[in-house]
């Protein structure tokens, strides 16, 4: 698997006189990038025999990515690389970066001795010590601020929110300091911090543990947000986020940690700003991210059987949007469906709808349809919880209506 | 005045964690009159109207024996012996110059504000110079300082040129933050000033992070000489904020090289410290977290300096944090927009009589460390520095449009990929500041 966009090293503070076409911003030609991306997507997303594949009932299939990505090119070798679960992929990315740069450190609740509540940092404290993998007291606002201060003075911390929802307590630091200080200091201080953690609707975890913070953070100027969805992009995005000079918020999903996939042995870093083509198609563009990708792929199976050809794109970069990949798709299919887990009001889908309408209005044959979660605090009861998030059946219906 | 460990070891009952409204302090009982049901909604303690008592170094039991020499200055007056003065002549003049710079600068700010050269919220430091000068003149360039919105003098004392601070206040491109920060956000990478924060308390975790960095460098990266200390300055109002307590805990837990300096000027805009705080003695909150808490007269630069010396050395050694409460006062209102009607004129007069600059002047004369002439020439020099700073700022250019988008991201790829496939920052309009992002 060819190494994709290699994160550039230290980027000097931007000044008007810096040539934008200098080596520092060397970007591979766009075309080859997305092509190799989709080639990668093919052999990676095969269904996994480890999980029990029963005839699909909606609840069973939530975790199983049994939709085949595309019928395309299978000439790439499938036996190289190694298989692991998503949380292990995150750990591998983290460990590689910690090995590479001694300034990379982790801080969060129970990341050290406990190994992380989702085992992402398991074993790292034994290897690197208690100061490099720091167990903090339960004080999100302060330890996030501490991470920001450490980032400003030369370290590269990764702050883990045990659950993304807890980072609501750190909103002051994330909004005011993380996003703003590079600007208000006139570019003097960089904040190469990564804030990561699991979010999203889980299995009956209750309202407060089922939050989608991407909608709250998206307006903060100065930060980047990415969402991982497969072990492959989890590792790549983790490494890219750590190497980035910008503050990055990496959204993981509670239900995706046990996804298994074969990833390359060679080192690779993905681009933080690019979207991922999951399944090329002709009839409709379906934009999604994180867990909803799997609902979409499941719906895609049904749609394919019904004769539709959906193009599925995992937008991955929640802020900023990759308008090139999205735009190219819109220009091809002329119909857009957005499927997300964010709330209806003010979510990522709402922003994406606005961005597409603004940029590609002329190419649309139908209004953009956005399927989001209900504006409801996630209930505990399983049935109610199921109805708050978008299910594959709804996706199928929406595509059918859109393509009329 | 000689300083020795014996001064500290005197068995003065140190009120560790004792709440004064439960039982009176042994020797200072007169200070705390429990009023019974308070006639106003606030602390039962009275404001101190007496001369500052000897400051207490409250050290938790486990550390008491390890305390090294701490100064003991009796009854609020400078006690001197002819052989041992607190400072040398050079140091005295340096302190004087720094305080004069702070005072004259702030006065110039007020002038410029009323002339319409600077805008927004401007918070002046008049009266509190002893705290700034007392601490900063003991710091190295590599030490880090974090402040709040009342940060002009902190930046100046740390070494940021007056020109850079003044033009930042004027909003010019030559300001220390390129005009993007303003009065409340003074930053300097060269002098390790990391803010300047508008919300109170939000700088304290950042300071804790800087201290963590220092410890990390020493213990993980094994850098030689990594003993930078961090100073976090904030006020009495901040001491009721959660971030303060969370950071006291973390700093003491990991023995971070940080000093929490509380500039208790008794007022948070119009809220008296007594009306906002259940136990107004902030220094007592240090021992509750396992660090020494010190109270010092913040109107006396020499006392502040002595406490600062001890606290900074403690942090540099790796012995952990200290909480220093400096009792001080601001002669002006909270900001230039504050009419300052709530404070009692008698209180203001009392503190004006304790002007730190006059006090130092008196000390220098009494101990024959400086002449009138020398001090006047310092003042003249500072006048010239400030006139130059104002002129420089007047003549500096305003930030051009092209500056608008430059510093949003350290790596401008963060603006994303546009519909044409190129990164937004590659758009030629980006450098002009007119790109659509």
Provide structural commentary.
The complex is a heterodimer of chains A (404) and B (437). Chain A is an alpha/beta fold and 404 residues long. Chain A has 2 domains: 198 residues, Rossmann fold, CATH 3.40.50; 182 residues, 3-Layer(aba) Sandwich (Rossmann fold). Chain A is built from 13 helices and 14 strands. Chain A has a 7-stranded mixed sheet, sandwiched between helices. In chain A, strands 9-11-10-13-14 form a 5-stranded mixed sheet, with helices on both faces. Chain A has a two-stranded antiparallel sheet with strand order 1-8. The N terminus of chain A is likely disordered. Chain B is α/β, with parallel strands linked by helices and 437 residues long. Chain B has 2 domains: 370 residues, Rossmann fold (3-Layer(aba) Sandwich), CATH 3.40.50.970; 29 residues, no CATH class. In chain B, strands 1-9-10-6-5-2 form a 6-stranded mixed sheet, with helices on both faces. In chain B, 50% of the residues are buried. The N terminus of chain B is likely disordered.
Distance between the termini of chain A: 39 Å
Number of helices of chain A: 13
Unreliable residue stretches of chain B: 1-39, 47-83
Question: What is the averaged pLDDT score of chain A?
Answer: 84
Main sheet makeup of chain B: 6 strands, mixed
User: Beta fraction of the residues of chain B?
Assistant: 5-15%
Largest inter-chain contact set = A-B, 72 and 70 residues
Q: Classify the oligomer.
A: heterodimer
Spans where pLDDT lies below 50 across 5 or more residues of chain A: 1-77
Structural class of chain A: alpha/beta
Q: From the 3D coordinates, which CATH architecture of the largest domain in chain A would you assign? A: 3-Layer(aba) Sandwich
Q: If strands are numbered along the chain, what order do they take across the biggest sheet of chain B?
A: 1-9-10-6-5-2
Strand line-up in the sheet with most strands of chain A: 3-2-4-5-7-6-12
Number of domains of chain A: 2
Alpha-beta content class of chain B: alpha/beta
Keywords (chain A): Oxidoreductase, Pyruvate, Thiamine pyrophosphate
Cofactor (chain A): thiamine diphosphate
Domain Transketolase-like pyrimidine-binding (chain A): 84-259
Enzyme class (chain A): oxidoreductase
């Amino acid at each position: 698997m060819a190494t994709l966009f290699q994160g550039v090293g230290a980027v000097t503070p931007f000044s008007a006189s810096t040539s934008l076409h200098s080596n520092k911003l060397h970007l591979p030609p766009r075309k080859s990038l997305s092509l190799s991306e989709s080639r990668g997507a093919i052999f990676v997303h095969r269904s996994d025999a480890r999980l029990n594949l029963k005839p699909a009932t909606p609840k069973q299939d939530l975790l199983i990515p049994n939709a085949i990505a595309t019928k395309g090119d299978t000439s790439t070798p499938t036996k190289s690389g190694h298989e692991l679960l998503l949380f292990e992929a995150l750990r591998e990315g983290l460990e590689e970066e910690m090995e590479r740069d001694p300034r990379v450190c982790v801080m969060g609740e129970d990341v050290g001795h406990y190994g992380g509540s989702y085992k992402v940092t398991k074993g790292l404290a034994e290897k690197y010590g208690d100061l490099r993998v720091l167990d903090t007291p339960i004080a999100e606002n302060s330890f996030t601020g501490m991470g920001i201060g450490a980032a400003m003075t030369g370290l590269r911390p990764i702050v883990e929110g045990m659950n993304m929802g807890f980072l609501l307590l750190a909103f002051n630091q994330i909004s005011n300091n993380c996003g703003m200080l590079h600007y208000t200091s006139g570019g003097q201080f960089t904040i190469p911090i990564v804030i990561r953690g699991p979010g999203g609707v889980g299995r009956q975890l209750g309202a407060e543990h089922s939050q989608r913070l991407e909608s709250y953070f998206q307006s903060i100027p100065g930060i980047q947000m990415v969402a991982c969805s497969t072990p492959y992009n989890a590792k790549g995005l983790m490494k890219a986020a750590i190497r980035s000079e910008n503050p990055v918020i990496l959204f993981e999903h509670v239900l995706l940690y046990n996804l298994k996939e074969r990833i390359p042995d060679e080192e690779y870093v993905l681009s933080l700003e690019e979207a991922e083509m999951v399944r090329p198609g002709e009839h409709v563009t379906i934009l999604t991210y994180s867990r909803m990708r799997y609902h979409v792929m499941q719906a895609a199976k049904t749609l394919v059987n019904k004769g539709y050809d959906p193009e599925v794109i995992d937008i991955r970069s929640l802020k900023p949007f990759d308008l090139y990949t999205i735009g190219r798709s819109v220009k091809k299919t002329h119909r857009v469906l957005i499927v997300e887990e964010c709330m209806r009001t003010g979510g990522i889908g709402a922003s994406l709808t606005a961005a597409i309408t603004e940029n590609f209005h002329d190419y649309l044959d139908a209004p953009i349809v956005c399927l989001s979660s209900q504006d409801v605090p996630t209930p505990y009861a399983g049935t109610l919880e199921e109805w708050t998030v978008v299910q594959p059946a709804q996706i199928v219906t929406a595509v059918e209506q859109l393509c009329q | 005045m000689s300083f020795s460990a014996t001064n500290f070891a005197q068995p003065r009952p140190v009120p560790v964690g004792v709440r004064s409204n439960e039982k009176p302090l042994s020797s200072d009982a007169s200070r705390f009159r429990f009023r019974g049901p308070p006639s106003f909604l606030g602390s039962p303690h009275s404001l101190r109207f007496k001369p500052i008592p000897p400051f207490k170094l409250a050290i938790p039991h486990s550390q008491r024996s390890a305390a090294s020499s701490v100064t003991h200055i009796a009854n609020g007056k400078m006690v001197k012996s002819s052989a041992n003065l607190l400072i040398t002549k050079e140091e005295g003049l340096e302190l004087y110059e720094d305080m004069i710079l702070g005072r004259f600068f702030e006065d110039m700010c007020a002038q410029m504000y009323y002339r319409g050269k600077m805008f927004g919220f401007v918070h002046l430091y008049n009266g509190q110079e002893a705290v700034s000068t007392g601490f900063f003149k003991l710091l190295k360039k590599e030490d880090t300082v974090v402040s709040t919105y009342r940060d002009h003098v902190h930046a100046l004392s740390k070494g940021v040129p007056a020109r850079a601070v003044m033009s930042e206040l004027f909003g010019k491109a030559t300001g220390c933050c390129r005009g993007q920060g303003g009065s409340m956000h003074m930053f300097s990478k060269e002098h390790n000033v990391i803010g300047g924060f508008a919300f109170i308390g939000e700088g304290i975790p950042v300071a804790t992070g800087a201290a963590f960095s220092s410890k990390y460098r020493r213990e993980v990266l094994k850098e030689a000489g990594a003993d930078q200390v961090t100073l976090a300055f904030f006020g009495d109002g901040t001491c009721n904020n959660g971030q303060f307590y969370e950071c006291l805990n973390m700093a003491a837990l990991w023995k971070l090289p940080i000093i929490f300096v509380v500039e208790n000027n008794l007022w948070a805009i119009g809220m008296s410290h007594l009306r906002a705080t259940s136990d107004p003695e902030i220094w007592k909150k240090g021992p509750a977290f396992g660090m020494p808490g010190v109270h010092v007269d913040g109107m006396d630069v020499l006392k502040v300096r002595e406490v600062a010396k001890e606290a900074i050395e403690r942090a540099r050694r790796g012995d952990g944090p200290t909480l220093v409460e400096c009792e001080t006062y601001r002669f002006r209102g909270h900001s230039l927009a504050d009419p300052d009607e709530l404070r009692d004129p008698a209180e203001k007069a009392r503190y004006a009589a304790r002007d730190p600059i006059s006090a130092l002047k008196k000390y220098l004369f009494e101990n024959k460390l400086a002449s009138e002439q020398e001090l006047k020439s310092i003042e003249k020099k500072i006048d010239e520095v400030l006139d130059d700073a104002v002129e420089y700022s007047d003549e500096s250019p305003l930030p051009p449009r092209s500056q608008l988008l430059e510093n949003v991201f350290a790596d401008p790829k963060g603006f994303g990929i546009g519909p044409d496939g190129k990164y937004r920052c590659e758009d030629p309009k980006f450098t002009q500041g007119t790109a659509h992002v």
